[in-house]
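One chain is below:
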Amino acid sequence: MSTFQLDECDIPFEPGDTIIRAAHRAGIDIPHYCWHPGLSVAANCRMCLVELLPPPGRKALMLDVLRWDQASGQYVKEQKPKLVPACQQPVSAGMQVLSQSSDHVARARASVQEMLLLNHPVDCPICDQAGECRLQDYWLSQGGTKKRMLDEPIHKPKAVVFGPHIVYDAERCIVCTRCVRVCEEVAKDPVLTVAQRGNLNEIAVAPGRQLDHNYSLMTEVVCPVGALTSKEFRFKARVWFLRSVRSVCVGCATGCSSFTDYDPRDSHVHRYRPRENPQVNKHWMCDAGMLDYSRIHEGRVMEPRLDGEPVPRRSGLDKAVELLREARPGRLAIVLGAEYSQEDNGALLALGRSLNCNAYFESGRPSGASDAILMHADKNPNSAGVRKLLGVELQPIEKLISGLTAGQLTHVLVLGASLKEPQIEGNLGQLPTHVRIVLSTHDGALISGARVVLPVSSWAEAEGTFVNAAGLSQISEQAIMPQGLSLPGWKWVSHLARGLGYELQLGSTDDARALIEQNSGTGSTVYAARTESQP
């Protein structure tokens, strides 16, 4: 691969690369505001200016400038090389570029930074972007000088509601146009534009419109300053108190790579952010996925229930074991959960194999809205994973209803509280002749009428593997501790197996993952070991 020199370091590049893109791929940060790896080049902030050294035997293009001489108190003439924006300058083999090692570049970036801050409000203490603001970072790294302009700054509209999720503060805006390009290039809905000119510039919404497309929160994510804020996160937390883990969005079958940001002091998740993944979501997430973190703390099953009443963990588990023992051979149905991880489903399948169950079905959230960008109609993160485990053994849910109606099936062990076919949930609830045991994170239709409900930890409370619609397996890391009396699904299944006289030997997520790997995708060899005595 061809290389060029950046501050005397050899940097590889691909055909068509610009300086900043090649540096970004190599993990080198060239200061910038308007450039984003997933958007077109605007080259309007001029923060990424770099110096190109001329080839041997040629002179650099020089410009005449005036410099203020502090000693004489006058402007003096001098020359400086013409600087170029790194986001726009294509790379060629052998090119020599100065970024951090050029005095001319340092002065230029300091001047750009000073200009951007001339009218910027000093409201960092109340700004949601404080702690992850490029204006703060670059002020420290590119000069850190005091403000010289003592005139009253230009005042612009504040707290302007752009749409259902976004609030705009024009005084903080540096008009980098990232948000405009997100709407036009990602969402395919050019609802934002730049209004006015010069230092009166601000972002505006098209007349008669709102910023209400499915990717409106991406405008807040790409904003390098505090101009665009999310209503849901606004004034909720300080970023320096938050910690992050690598996670997978469970809002639909696309399985966007994400970051889960949480406060470890109270185990509360405050937001999702997209995590770059060229194979899945590139740099983006839809609004529904970005806001799905609210389900971690809302509508939860927090304690075991027996006939609808809260009971201690041991009591709920013992009753579930007792009911499963009553099931005659061939009368038990297992319902795997498309909302749950491969580890949870693999453990449940292993228990089903050991109990000689041959009736397997699937639970999950009903289908919803989709688009040609990221939103998938299947609102479950692991439907492909369930199919991978079961293959042709996955039976239509109508067969579960008919089996219960005819008395061929009498007991149902369910992972999840909803069915993908909402019209069937009512039919299942009206069948009085079956015993239903539900392992679930949230309340739902299948919990009504269940004899035993066991609380399952959410995806943020346990590490797990999810297989998206394209067949890609991704691991979502644990962020917070299990809430209430919940346990990971695989752990509940392990306890049930032990109570029934089997041993799954599951002491960790890795053990659950190894159980699936034994199966190699067919499920035919996944069994629990029979124990001599029950614990």
